[in-house]
Design goal:
By secondary structure, the chain is of the alpha+beta class. It folds into 2 domains: about 5-85 and about 195-200, no CATH class; about 90-190. Helices cover about 25% and strands about 30% of the residues. It has 5 helices and 11 strands; from the N terminus they run H-E-E-E-H-E-E-E-H-E-E-E-H-E-H-E. Strands 1, 2, 3, 4, 5, 10 and 11 form a 7-stranded mixed sheet that branches. A 4-stranded antiparallel sheet has the order 6-7-8-9, sandwiched between helices. The radius of gyration is 17 Å and the shape is globular. This is N-acetyltransferase.
């Protein structure tokens, strides 16, 4: 778990951000196979394993957007897998709900559940007792609880609120900015944007 990054993210809930200096910090990855670049306002964090440090393209890295430069990611990942650039959202916790979420093992092979299981720890697949919607709850970005939601019947906000309530404390979510409907739903459920994140898994040749 990357404690320094986790602390930095949680501090943003109180409006406290790292110094806006264009710099970046190297932090420990929170997953054995997944690495990441996280950017906040004017400062970035690069979560990579020790063996990659000497190959970091330092001439392009900065906290003013350079950490998300596609050429930086290409140099880090090689032919590996790269997730889309997501808006990083946080919720302080404390939500209340009347919805009961139950385990939905019948939906464990859903693409959203499969992705969550690939990039997070201890993933649970939840949902209403009936219906097509699902919620994934796991330990994700910087070791924080992280949720994802898939819904086909318009109850995304209710599912998000129920997921947050099931956790109790601060919760993270990563949402593609182009998915405006999902982004609006998360914001309406009390999440706030704090930065951006891009996950990647190196190719075997880079490992």
């Amino acid at each position: 778990m990357s404690l320094d990054l986790q602390q930095a993210l949680l501090a943003t809930l109180d409006g406290t951000y790292p110094q806006v200096d264009g710099g970046w910090d190297l932090v420990r990855p929170w997953h054995p196979h997944v690495e990441a670049v996280v950017a906040l306002t004017g400062h970035a964090y690069v979560a990579v394993r020790d063996d990659l440090v000497d190959r970091l393209p330092r001439e392009r890295l900065d906290g003013y957007g350079g950490a998300h430069d596609p050429r930086v990611l290409a140099g880090l990942v090689g032919d590996g897998w790269v997730d889309c650039l997501d808006a990083l959202l946080l919720h302080p916790g404390g939500a209340t709900t009347e919805i009961e979420l139950v385990a939905r093992s019948d939906r464990a092979q859903h693409p959203r559940a499969a992705l969550a299981q690939r990039v997070r720890h201890d993933v649970r697949v939840l949902g209403r007792a009936r219906g097509d919607g699902l919620v994934t709850v796991g330990r994700g970005i910087a070791g924080l609880p992280e949720i994802g939601v898939e819904t086909a019947d318009g109850d995304g906000r209710a599912l998000i609120t129920a997921a947050v309530a099931s956790i109790g404390g601060p919760v993270a979510a990563a949402v593609a900015p182009g998915n405006a409907r999902a982004l609006r739903t998360f914001l309406a459920a009390g999440f706030v944007p704090v930065g951006s994140v891009q996950l990647f898994v190196r190719s075997p040749a880079q490992s």
